[in-house]
Task: inverse folding
């Protein structure tokens, strides 16, 4: 009788976990709905509507993500709403964003007339330094290996274990880090924090360093506290659990052995007429999961990613381009059979 009870217990644990993978804060739900609508208006070149939607969104959530502040600032500049743009400029500076020397002169010729606002956040330098030291542990043998991780498999396993366990302890002690308490990582234009790499490397399918920590509980908690963007949360959740719950459409580019880049491709199901019952079912499942954590549909996301290819002033998603490198050109062509080149179709 013990064995069936164990199975029932395991089923209940899994069921409870699956039920918690959703956004429950009503203000955040409203915030992300307005943000998604504003981004759709941007790609449709309806800047006045986008500007108003951002204002509504920021009234719902006191700590908007840096990407939303950047997009709103850009839209406000385009609509000559300079007071709003200057306010977001100041907030981004408080988060640590670096602007070029001519940004003020080019965008706010009479900056003296705008109200200077004190920073509403405090950067915890000790926390940031602790995270940086863990990232250095995570990256040390990866840099040495130059991509040949098998050479340092044992060392990677040890360091990944150390970094992930210490990161989990830090998060439980000080809360999930975000741009309001550790500032921005300026090396990544989509505002992807370096410490996310430690979580990334705890992917369930890791061939070189087995998973020691599953960060799903902490990620979902952070989503509900507004401390991590839903697109990054979905990406990390899929890695930690070896799932594909939060993404279907991706832009692919291929890098050949001689360094040439062949871009950009998307799944042929991007065109509605190519969808099968199987793909329709999967897309519906992905969209339902995405909605639960505040994301737009996967169709909307890919449209924004396509827009981003030629519009670097905006940041919409962590999912922009996925790179592939094959040693055999025949393997590349086989892979492309399920893809269409964006240049060859209206999008």
Result:
């Amino acid at each position: 009788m013990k064995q069936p009870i164990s199975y029932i217990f395991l089923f209940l644990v899994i069921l409870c976990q699956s039920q918690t993978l959703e956004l429950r804060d009503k203000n955040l739900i409203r915030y992300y709905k307005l943000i998604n609508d504003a981004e759709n208006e941007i790609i449709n070149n309806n800047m006045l509507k986008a500007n108003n939607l951002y204002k509504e969104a920021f009234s719902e959530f006191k700590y908007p993500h840096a990407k939303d502040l950047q997009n709103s600032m850009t839209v406000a500049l385009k609509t000559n709403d300079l007071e709003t743009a200057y306010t977001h400029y100041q907030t981004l500076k408080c988060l640590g964003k670096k602007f070029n020397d001519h940004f003020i002169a080019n965008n706010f010729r009479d900056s003296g007339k705008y109200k200077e606002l004190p920073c509403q956040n405090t950067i915890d330098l000790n926390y940031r330094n602790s995270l940086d030291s863990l990232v250095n542990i995570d990256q040390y043998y990866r840099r040495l290996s130059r991509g040949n991780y098998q050479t340092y498999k044992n060392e990677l396993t040890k360091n990944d274990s150390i970094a992930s366990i210490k990161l989990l302890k830090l998060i439980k002690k000080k809360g999930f880090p975000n741009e309001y308490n550790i500032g921005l990582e300026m090396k990544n234009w989509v505002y992807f924090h370096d410490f996310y790499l430690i979580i990334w490397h705890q992917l369930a399918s890791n061939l070189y360093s087995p998973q020691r920590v599953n960060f799903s509980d902490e990620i979902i908690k952070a989503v509900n506290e507004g401390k991590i963007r839903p697109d990054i949360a979905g990406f990390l959740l899929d890695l930690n659990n070896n799932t594909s719950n939060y993404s279907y459409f991706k832009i692919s580019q291929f890098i050949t052995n001689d360094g040439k880049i062949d871009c950009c491709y998307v799944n042929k199901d991007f065109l509605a007429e190519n969808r099968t019952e199987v793909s329709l079912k999967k897309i519906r499942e992905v969209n339902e999961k995405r909605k639960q954590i505040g994301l737009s549909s996967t169709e909307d996301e890919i449209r924004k990613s396509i827009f981003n290819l030629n519009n670097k002033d905006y940041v919409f998603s962590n999912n922009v381009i996925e790179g592939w490198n094959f040693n055999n050109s025949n393997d590349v062509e086989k892979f492309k059979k399920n893809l269409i080149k964006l240049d060859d179709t209206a999008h």
Summary: Residues 153-174 form the longest helix (22 residues). The chain has 15 helices and four strands.
